[in-house]
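Hi R.,

Here's the chain you asked about this morning:
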Amino acid sequence: MTDTVTHKGGCHCGAVTFEVQAPAQLKASRCNCSICSMTGFIHLIVTKDEFRLTSGADDLSTYRFNTGVAQHNFCKICGVKSFYTPRSHPDGISVNVNCLDRATIESVAISDFDGQNWEDAIHTLD
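And the predicted structure, written out as tokens:
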């Protein structure tokens, strides 16, 4: 088992902050679906137990579309989506690697996920 570290992150303005337990050597995915490609979201999917919102719960707004399963959380102040509940892992959290402090990250290996063809590609997602 890979040792985990506490990564800190948040939105652009700093109103929403969080901590996530994950390895220092991250494995993440880049999705080409409509919302991920427009926002540049790089996914680090963790369990809800590995994620802790440390500030800004009242500064979050939720957006849902298509099936309505995914809960896209945005900061009401700066508009950044630093994490959300994904359709692929409704019992987990997807953290945007771009919103993590770099101090605790040793490396990031990014694989591509074909979110434009979600139903056909879901089996390829960890």
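The helical segments are 34-39, 118-121.

Let me know if you need anything else.
M.
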